[in-house]
User: Fold these one by one.
Assistant:
Number 1:
Amino acid sequence: MADAKTPLRRVILGTGGTIAGRAARAGDNVGYVAGQVSAQDLIAAVPPLAGLPLEVEQVAQIDSKDMGLAVWQRLAERVAHHLAREDVAGVVITHGTDTLEETAFFLRAVLSPTKPVVLTCAMRPSTALVPDGPQNLLDAVTVAGDPQAHGVLAVCAGSVHAAEHVTKVHTYRVDAFDSGDAGPLGLVEEGRVRWLHLPDRPGTETPFDAQRLQRLQQATALPRVHWLTSHADADGVQVLALLAYGDAHPEAMPQGLVVAGTGNGTLHQALEAALQEAVSRGVVVRRSSRCARGRVIPGVAGALADTQGLSPAKARIALALELMGM
Ligand code: SIN
């Protein structure tokens, strides 16, 4: 529980998603439109939040499949603004499930926040017979006010996940997220967090990395990094087509490629040959795995560099930021 000195104010930033989705029929859990209900109305639908010192801002109202740099820049700026306030304990972000792990990883990579930044979501629209958003939102607000919470976290279906490990693993079930081999950081039970592992506390007391935020705000686009997959019967055509397109449109030449390999990051020989061609032309290539669990274990002579345990989705962001010198 927070002591008397802990600032209790939490700021909720709405970005859309199924949590803010609306369907024409209450029984419809798939035929809805995401990003329809305001964050203010989502809070009003959760009676235990009434009377808490909360602030709300609508940063975006989108289906998170359409997430991109412009919303990330605005979101990072608003998160940083509120984290810098002494009276704010933490920030909650309502977000679609589909790219939640990417936004979480991006904010962690750019801001390295000390205070908690908690992303939450829902798998059922707000109009569902039994929506999961209200409980997730309440749990996220609880986590954002917990004195042990630090950094970027995700809360869904009663579990707390770290940004670096959280992954959406199910298309439909409300318990759609997993942290792979790392497991969840904690569980939210009746308004309390039971930590299984404490989140890493950044080695600094500054609320966020202002220099990196400034670099991000100056960007007009992220470096072009594509994500490909190896599979039976794969060939190098996608890679060669990207290079050919880049020859015709230099502004679209890929700067990086992340490839989700089979098993321990192995690649079909035809795809690998095309990737080596890309490397010879200055494209940075990183090798991840398409397996849901585990990481690429280094040790194969001559192999392309691996993603140090990052999933392809997160490795793509990490490589883009690296190419920006961040
Ligand atoms: C979205 O990601 O915005 C739509 C899907 C969801 O939130 O579950």
Number 2:
Amino acid sequence: MTLGILGGGQLARMLCLDARRMGFRTVVWSGTPTAEPTEGVADVLIKKGFDDDVARAEFCGQVDVATVEFENIPLKTLKAVEEEIELYPSAESIGVSQHRSREKAFLREHEIPCAPFALVNSLEDLERAYAEVGPVGVLKTAAFGYDGKGQVKLTGAEQLSEAWQSVEGQPSVLEGFVDFQCEISVLVARDAEGKSLAFPPVENQHRHHMLDLTIAPARVSDVILDDAKTIAIKLAEAMGYRGLLAVEFFVEKSGRVIVNEMAPRPHNSGHFSMNGSVTSQFEQQLRAVCGLPLGSTELHGETVMVNLLGDMWRGEPRELDTAAIFETEGAKLHLYGKSDPGERRKMGHLNLVGGEGVLERAIRLKLRLLGA
Ligand code: AMP
């Protein structure tokens, strides 16, 4: 069986590696002229734009079923692919999470709790929205935002005009600022028969607005764990979803769990599963997409994932201190095959599984890699 993947970044790379282990062929259509992470890892790599009809014919002509590694693929391309071959999740499901406004409308329609929000298309809208959800809010562009990109925090009415300029007048959403106790996320897979299975919720900590550390399972009450899983499954069912869905949550100080956003694909906060779970998130995506039964989401033990951003490549020439990693008990290194360690670029991650003091060991190693 041949699996087609739209997008050629690290998520596609890790999906290809699991697919290869399981005897599947992979065809990656990167949408870009370079795709370092999937170079030498995909069986076939098509490095052409998503608007290229020849590339689409080449892709669809040699795959049995297709999936995506990121959501920001033109809807037109997704629909055209779907006309020729099976695509999971569907273009419709992916379309919901391409736009914050569509995502929020979907959450509201299905009565799924999220932060108060208002859609903003002009400075007047922003003023009205701020009066409604302020005094502290976060303005987010509706499209193509991730890792805190296209976001501005607002703490006073005098900042509105400048904030509106900083998003360059793009359609946006103003959210009320959530004074959360922690951020957690849940990966849920839904198979061809409509059976859903969630991984244990995990706790996420950020650095420079990007994921820094994931702790699996999340250190919250059983009620909070259950609420997050229930909401994630409800979302997958409401969308008629097939594939792997990541749902990010805020846990409010009161213990209420509310949705921040979702991603129709494997997620950075699910990388713990590569060493910490019986089934990795990539294997689970492959199982759901290819019509196989879902695998166990059981954890082998407490697992900590540390993101390796480019700022951990230090010295001249810049290098990662791999000796520190190999010296650390239980640390598993995953690199994404990127040659340029831009300061905020996701270059790889580490997983540390089980044993006494696993979190402390992970933090010590992270600080050592940062030279702190
Ligand atoms: P996002 O790209 O929407 O996931 O936002 C990136 C990060 O910004 C989140 O993980 C939070 O740490 C923070 N953030 C986003 N929206 C809010 C909000 N409404 N209230 C508080 N913090 C937020």
